[in-house]
Design a protein that fits this description.
heterodimer; A: mainly beta; seven-stranded mixed sheet; 11 strands; 48% strand; B: 118 residues; mainly beta; globular
Chain lengths: 112, 118
């Protein structure tokens, strides 16, 4: 199985400041179709996960442009340009280049 | 818009089976696979498998082979996930999620809490 490792485990950010989360995969995530099957989710307190970024760098419908994804190969990053209070929750990366689909262990974002 | 509604919380005894339903609306039901993902305090988010409502075809994670089944009823746009041989390790919130258009859970249901206790 592909292992997804996120860092940091948690971070505390002042509103208006940037935040960055790293995700490393144990294998490359580029499919033979040329797409990179790396995704980012946010699970707000008491809610289901919601998709933020698909294929490493594409914001999902309705996701604010302060969220951006980057990376290639086995190293990926989610950045929030200016954190807002509504961004609190746990962020997960996920790969679906091969089965089983696997998730990172999560990064908890709290507001200072 | 895409909407998935799951059945309510369940309490089961060890060794029993649980059946969770997921009713979809807002799109053509037979066009997209439905994934099942569970969330436990110890294991985090765990992908269990998917079912394609058009064909009924399934793909399960090896971990759950022999214990999980997924079926659908297209007349009521509902998919079902049955997990058998429950142990305390199966206590979790179970989510269904419609795929994005590739093998990716994108639109999630509200989750179903399954407790396992004697």
């Amino acid at each position: 199985d592909i292992v997804m490792t996120q860092t940091p485990v948690s971070l505390s950010v002042t509103p208006g400041q940037p935040a960055s989360i790293s995700c490393k995969s144990s294998q490359g995530l580029v499919h033979r179709d040329g797409k990179t099957y790396l995704f980012w989710y946010l699970q707000k307190p008491g809610q289901s996960p919601q998709l933020l970024i698909n294929e490493a760098s594409n914001r999902f419908s309705g996701v604010p442009d302060r969220f951006s994804g980057s990376g290639s190969g086995t190293d990926f990053t989610l950045k929030i340009s200016r954190v807002e209070t509504e961004d609190v929750g746990v962020y997960y990366c996920m790969q679906s280049v091969e089965y089983p689909i696997t998730f990172g262990q999560g990064t908890r974002l709290e507001i200072k | 818009q895409v909407h998935l509604v799951q059945s309510g919380a369940e309490v089961k005894k060890p060794g029993a089976s649980v059946k969770v339903s997921c009713t979809a609306s807002g799109y053509t039901f037979t066009d997209y696979s439905i994934h099942w993902v569970r969330q436990t305090p110890g294991q985090g988010l765990e992908w269990m498998g998917w079912i394609h409502p058009h064909s009924g075809g399934t793909n399960f994670a090896m971990k759950f082979l022999g214990r999980v089944s997924m079926t659908r009823d297209t007349s009521i746009t509902t998919v079902y996930m049955v997990l058998s041989g429950l142990t305390s390790d199966d206590a979790a919130v179970y989510y269904c999620a419609r795929e994005l258009g590739g093998p990716t859970p994108a639109y999630w249901g509200q989750g179903t809490l399954v407790s396992v206790s004697s």
